[in-house]
Design goal:
The complex is a heterotrimer of chains A (about 450), B (about 280) and C (about 300).
Chain A (H helix, E strand, L loop, with lengths): L1 H18 L7 E7 L7 H15 L3 E7 L3 H13 L6 E5 L3 H6 L7 H6 L4 H5 L11 E2 L2 E2 L2 E6 L1 E6 H6 L11 H11 L1 E3 L2 E8 L7 H11 L18 H15 L11 H9 L3 E7 L3 H7 L4 E4 L9 E2 L1 E6 L6 H14 L2 H11 L12 H9 L1 H8 L4 E2 L7 H16 L5 H22 L9
Parallel strand pairs in A: 1-2, 1-3, 9-10, 12-14
Antiparallel strand pairs in A: 3-13, 4-5, 6-13, 7-10, 7-11, 8-9
Helix pairs in contact in A: 9-10, 15-16, 17-18
Chain B lengths: L7 H4 L4 H25 L20 H9 L2 H32 L5 H13 L6 H10 L6 H5 L6 H12 L3 H9 L4 H12 L1 H16 L3 H6 L8 H14 L3 H21 L1 H12 L2
Helix pairs in contact in B: 2-14, 3-14, 4-8, 4-11, 4-13, 5-8, 11-15, 13-14
Chain C lengths: L3 H4 L22 H29 L1 E4 L2 E4 L3 H8 L1 H32 L4 H15 L2 H11 L6 H8 L14 H27 L2 H9 L4 H12 L1 H17 L2 H6 L11 H10 L4 H24 L4 H4 L1
Antiparallel strand pairs in C: 1-2
The chains are: A alpha/beta (about 450), B mainly alpha (about 280), C mainly alpha (about 300).
Chain lengths: ~450, ~280, ~300
């Protein structure tokens, strides 16, 4: 299989090389970007890239909408294999480990050095919580573009109606459980309003479960080595059982898999009083909700902790020097304090560039929208995001089991055992090639 | 849609209660389309998305937004190029092969015909993984010809043309041969004009199936400016879902479905006959 | 319906006899081969070669340290994979759940709507319209229909005071929901063939039954259904093939989830190849799927429903 791809890649590279002198005026580059959460992100991105092209006559960047985070990974890999890598990709921050193991993305330290900066100084612009998912083996593989954490959203009207105080949203699991019970409304055997909803579809469910696990004191995965996940552990069992109890015992959370848009839709329609979803949806909720809402930190059990989410800009391997340089220019522009701040206000993601929060328009914005400030403040509790060899299938291994538990098909303990087994099998080739590759064993 | 006429006897096969049930099912069948129309023309934020009552103040805003947020004309053009390209090559390959199997006698004919029929079993879409490798090796990855290539030979088309060619009286070809007409002249001047209905039937079936195709283009195409309508719609739907913009999805779906739906409503009889010919002729 | 149309043999009653073709002056082998060569080139590239390739891939393992021959190990791993077992079962259920209701409904539609009249024509068109839209477009519509809580179905159930369901999110319902979409999409297509089949039943048979005083159900059972047998055999095979080859809606609606509930064979192959980079497993699954399809089409050919019969 590899040899076929390589042959095709070589042919295409050769063809591209022959064609290169023709296009001496402006370097054409592509930027792959996903739309992972709610809102008009695709439209915002077109506007942003137009602005870049207008201010950079020597580069012509084309934004390419590539679907969800998972789809974007597939499309990027397909493009690399076909020898037509995009010059920059907004890549889910937890895919960088896998991509670097497979040598599909290139470190950027040489480009940073050309700017006369050390890698440490360059990455120092960004919130420290983001670095473990961007700097791997002390090499810079990605520049944080937009980042998020899970966030608790509550419907203030529902809180008042249920005799709860919307100004003190639940802080721990006990309060969350209690509030959800009070907020749930039933007519006979039909639930007309759910106390709490959390997304459990592929891509989203694993992240939310990680947030609950970390709030329960867990690590979730080995952040220093891409071949281990801690699915079958007490911290994870507690987290999964809590979610399961919300569904099956308290019956305050609907059963089955819930997709992200369905959760948002239910919250906006007043059919769910609380939800835990990404900060990236904040602007969309603010613009769309027809009722007062508030946001708060994800409630804790053992400690206050959430994983980061969001995406970093990466550059695939195999780019021509011109395209790589042009892509780098685009990456620096997109991650500057001004643009980062603008994108943050347009979407709800926080701006990874710390300097964005020193700018006057950002200060005014946070003044006006205290909810956005809460999202940023939660960064103090942020942990790195689950990342391993073959991240997507390893994540789906737990998500399939999570969905089974939420549907009442599996007990949490047996689900975790099964997920651990599946994940170990998936990571086995890498483990055998690294941690279990011992001297004298050949 | 009009079916061929039938005697009054047939009617009595069904008791009237069954006909009421079928009429009820027809209403159920129409609901998704009805919702699509109602939602597509409903102004954003007016009433429940799920309401089936048309808005009193219909708007084209959803269409305008769908049009602006996805490059539907380009997707349309790509779909058109793919379908036309496949069909053009298929007509040549199928009529040549059809002629051979209908009228030429040579050793190994049965074997070769069997070899063609193998394609009926090895459905191209199931072979998408190895075919993708071949496409990449040929340098056709992420190109429209890459989408078309696996469909250029068609066992079904060959079979259909063979059947129709055999119904052409041999005497006509014999006369042309005496006049010194070569094989191409005979196919072009005698066989093809006399088998127009079969050609039209095959064309309609071929275009419809490739117009609606999704999985194979999804594998081959990566660049957005080469997406056919089906890929464009899937990507558009995903981004509109994030905006909870169901009216927008309805409008986009309507735009994408319109060309074939319109063609069908205008040329109903021809479509119906073609589909039937694809199966029972 | 899509590509299957390209690949389905005609359920033809026997065509004209072939014997006469023999008396043509043969042009030797050169002309036939020349005329067949365009087709043969494409068939070789995209039908025969992929089979070789898939067989090679299925018997080799590509690891981080190179490629080696592994015999049937990929098949052993495939059949031991619970996800694959689930995909096989799902596809069997999906085939059963789409084919039987589609054919029963198509028969009901055809019987009720056979004949002239405006109302009938409109209703036939209504049943047929879903056939004309891409499966992806149908999925885009059903995305909202199945949306829990605020979607079309749940909204109207709630207005009737009935509890809704999480149609695509409940592993017990998701496959059924996908099946409903498929039946909606395809029943009208099969109706068309049954309408044509009804035309082929001689009027005399029905008239004779009428004279014998047979009621509607008896006529259906003893005259109409036997007369439709060849049609059913043919349409049944199309429907079965569709159940394997059409998975576009799974991509839009469920991605094989929740908990593998809607994982069908073709989606499994796609996932193994595109997401897990397990070429061996994907190839082994392809071989198994091709085997199933070959048996299906082979059965239909053996029963004299295919082109062979028309030879």
């Amino acid at each position: 299989m590899i040899s076929w791809w390589k042959g095709a890649a070589l042919a295409l590279v050769a063809a591209a090389g022959l064609a290169a002198p023709r296009a001496a005026l402006a370097t054409d580059i592509e930027l792959f970007f996903p739309v992972p959460v709610d809102g008009a992100l695709a439209r915002n991105m077109s506007g942003l890239i137009k602005e870049f092209n207008d201010s950079h006559p020597d580069i012509k960047a084309t934004p390419v909408f590539t679907g969800s985070y998972d789809d974007t990974l597939l499309k990027t890999r397909a493009a690399i294999k076909a020898g037509k890598p995009p010059a920059a990709v907004i890549m889910s921050a937890n895919f960088l480990t896998d991509l670097s193991i497979e040598r599909e993305i290139a470190p950027m330290d040489d480009l940073i050095a050309k700017e006369g900066k050390t890698s440490e100084a360059f990455m120092g612009q960004f919130f420290p919580a983001l670095l473990p998912n961007a700097v791997i083996d002390r090499k810079v593989y990605g520049v944080p573009f937009h980042n998020s954490t899970p966030l608790l959203y509550i419907n203030a009207d529902h809180f008042r109606e249920a005799g709860l105080d919307p100004d003190t949203p639940p802080r721990n699991w006990a309060e969350l459980y209690d509030a959800a019970r009070k907020l749930t409304k039933r007519e006979g055997d039909r639930t007309t309003r759910w106390g709490l909803m959390m997304p459990s579809n592929y891509d989203y469910g694993g992240w939310i479960l990680e947030a609950l696990t970390m709030s329960n004191g867990g690590q979730y995965y080995n952040r220093d080595y891409g071949g281990e996940v801690y699915y079958d552990t007490p911290t994870m069992l507690g987290a999964l059982t809590f979610w399961s109890d919300l569904v099956h015992k308290a019956k305050v959370h609907p059963a089955g898999e819930q997709k992200g848009p369905a959760v948002t839709g239910a919250f906006l329609a007043g059919q769910a009083s609380m939800m835990i979803i990404s900060t990236g949806s904040l602007t969309f909720i603010r613009d769309t909700a027809k009722f007062p809402f508030k946001v708060a930190f994800v409630p804790m059990n053992v400690r206050q902790a959430v994983p980061i989410g969001g995406a970093s800009l990466v550059q695939p391997t195999g780019l021509s020097p011109e395209k790589r340089a042009a892509g780098w220019t685009l990456i620096q522009w997109l991650t500057s304090a001004e643009k980062s701040g603008w994108w943050s206000r347009a979407t709800g993601y926080f701006a990874p560039n710390k300097a964005a929060y020193d700018l006057a328009e950002m200060k005014a914005f946070l003044e006006k929208n205290p909810d956005a400030k809460i999202a940023v403040d939660q960064l103090a509790n942020a942990q790195p995001w689950f990342a391993t060899y073959r991240t997507v299938p390893v994540r789906k291994a737990i998500e399939d089991e999570l969905q089974a538990v939420l549907s009442g098909k599996r007990q949490p303990k047996e689900a975790l055992t099964a997920a651990q087994k599946a994940a170990d099998a998936l990571m086995r080739p890498y483990v055998e090639d690294t941690a279990l590759r011992l001297p004298g064993a050949e | 849609m009009s079916a061929p006429s039938s005697g009054p006897v047939t009617r009595e096969v069904t008791p009237s209660i069954a006909r009421f049930v079928v009429a009820g099912l027809a209403l159920v069948w129409a609901v998704p389309f009805w919702w699509m129309l109602v939602a597509a023309f409903r102004p954003a934020g007016s009433g429940a998305d799920a309401s089936l009552l048309p808005s009193l103040t219909p708007t084209l805003a959803n269409f305008a937004e769908a049009w602006a947020s996805a490059d539907f004309p380009l997707y349309f053009l790509n779909s058109l190029v793919i379908c036309a390209g496949i069909l053009a090559v298929q007509l040549v390959t199928a009529s040549l092969a059809g002629y051979v199997f209908a009228r030429l006698e040579f050793p190994g004919r049965g074997f070769l015909f069997g070899l063609f029929l193998v394609q009926l079993m090895l459905v191209p879409v199931v072979l998408l993984v190895p075919n993708l490798k071949t496409i990449a090796a040929l340098g056709l990855y992420d190109t429209l010809p890459g989408v078309m290539a696996p469909y250029c030979a068609t066992a079904f088309g060959t079979f259909l043309m063979r059947q129709s060619f055999r119904e052409v009286p041999r005497e006509l070809e014999d006369a042309a041969m005496i006049d010194g007409a070569g094989w191409w002249a005979r196919i072009r001047l005698i066989y093809l004009p006399l088998t127009k209905p079969a050609l039209v039937a095959f064309s309609i079936v071929s275009v419809t199936s490739h117009w609606n195709e999704f999985l194979w283009p999804l594998m081959v195409i990566n660049s957005p400016d080469r997406r056919p309508l089906t890929l464009g719609l899937a990507s558009f739907t995903l981004s509109a879902e994030g905006m909870q913009a169901w009216g927008l999805i309805a409008a986009g779906t309507f735009l994408v479905s319109l060309p074939l739906l319109a063609a069908f409503l205008i040329f109903q009889r021809r479509f119906v006959n073609s589909f039937l010919a694809s199966g029972i002729k | 319906m899509t590509h299957v149309l390209d690949t389905i043999p005609a359920a033809a009653p026997a065509g004209p006899p072939v014997a006469r073709a023999a008396r043509r002056p043969g042009a030797g082998l050169l002309l036939p081969l020349a005329l067949l060569s365009p087709s043969l080139v494409f068939l070789a590239l995209f039908t025969y070669w992929p089979v070789v390739e898939v067989l090679w891939d299925a018997t080799h393992a590509v690891t981080r340290r190179g490629t080696r021959f592994v015999g049937l190990a990929n098949f052993a791993a495939l059949f031991a994979d619970p996800t694959f077992q689930r995909a096989l079962l799902n596809n069997a259920l999906y085939a059963l759940g789409t084919v039987v209701p589609s054919l029963v409904l198509a028969l009901a539609f055809a019987l009720a709507l056979n004949g002239a009249g405006r109302v009938r024509a409109v209703m036939r068109a209504v049943f047929f319209l879903p056939v004309m839209i891409p499966l992806v477009a149908a999925a885009a519509l059903f995305l909202f229909l199945f949306l829990p809580g605020i979607g079309l179905i749940d909204y109207h159930l709630a207005r009737l005071g009935l509890p809704g369901a999480n149609w695509l999110g409940d592993p017990d319902l998701a496959l059924a929901a996908i099946t409903v979409l498929t039946v909606w999409k395809n029943a009208g297509y099969y109706m068309l063939f049954i309408l044509a089949g009804l035309q082929a039943i001689p009027d005399e048979a029905r008239e004779a039954a009428l004279l014998d005083g047979a009621g509607p159900w008896q006529r259906l059972r003893f005259v109409t259904l036997p007369g439709l047998r060849p049609t059913f055999a043919f349409v049944g095979v199309i429907a079965l093939l569709n159940a394997v080859t059409q998975v576009d809606h799974v991509f839009v609606l469920t991605k094989g989830g929740p908990s593998d509930a809607t994982k069908l064979l073709l989606f499994y192959i796609y996932e193994q190849a595109a997401e897990r980079y397990d070429a061996g497993r994907a190839a082994a699954a392809t071989v198994v799927t091709l085997g199933l399809l070959a048996v299906l089409t082979g059965l239909s050919l053996a029963r004299g429903q295919g082109p062979e019969a028309a030879r």
